[in-house]
Fold:
Amino acid sequence: MNDSASLTLSALRAAPVLPREFFNRDPVTIARELLGKLLIRRVGRKLLAGRVVEDEAYLGANDPAAHAYTGRTARNAVLFGPPGHAYVYFIYGNHYCFNVSCMPEGYGEGVLFRALEPVFGVEQMALARDLELPDSPHANQLRLISSGPGRLSEAFGITRMRDNAKDLTSAKSDLWLADDGFRPGRIVATPRIGVTKAAERPLRFAIAGNGFVSGRREG
DNA sequence: GAGGAGATCGTCT
DNA sequence: GACGATCTCCTCT
Structure:
C-alpha cells in the first residue's frame, strides 16, 4: 500500500490546474500521467477531491472498444471536440461514466476514470453514495466510495446533464483536474475491464498496490 | 470469498 | 429491438 494521506484545504487550493496542453496528446500517455493527479469538485463553498489511481485509454477510430470507433454521434460528440473536456455517458440504466477528451479536435480519443482515492470531503462523498462511515472507517469501507466508474461518478455527483462537455482545465469550472506534486510509484498496465472488443490490449493503468483500485485486489 | 444474475434506460441500428 | 467502458445483492462453498 502506498495510499496517500488526506489533504488539507490549503494544499488543494494551491494545486495548479492541469492545462489544456496536458490533454492535447495521445490518451495512453495521458492515462499514465493522470495517475496521482487530483479530481476536484466544488459544491457550493465546499470542495471534494480524489486522487486518480486507475484509468483506461480509448483510442477512437483505432480502437473497436471505443465509443468513437464508429464515428461521431450526438452522444459522443464531446470526444471529437477540443481536449480537456468531460465526456459523460449513461450506461446499463444505472450508472454514469466520466471521461476526459484527448488529442486535438477530430480524433475522438479519451481517458475513462475508473477509480479515485478519496482525499478531501470524504464524508460528503459517502453521503452521496448512501454509505455510512463509522468514526474510524476501515480502508474497505472507504474503498466503496469511488472504486469503480459508476461509483466515483455518484460520489462526485457527476451526471451527463450537469457535466457533459464541461471544460476541466478552467479554474472557473466546478470540476477540474490538478497536480499537487504527488508522484505514484510503480504503474501497472492490464487489459481493460468490461470490454469485449480489443479486450486483450493493455490499456488500463493503475497505481501498483493502491488499495482503492477497482475490482479484485492485485499487486 | 467467489460467482451468477437482475436491475434499468439511453443510444444506435 | 438489442445491447452496454456497471453495481449490488444473493447464493453457494
About this structure: Chain A is about 20% helix and 25% strand. Chain A has a mean pLDDT of 92. The radius of gyration of chain A is 16 Å.
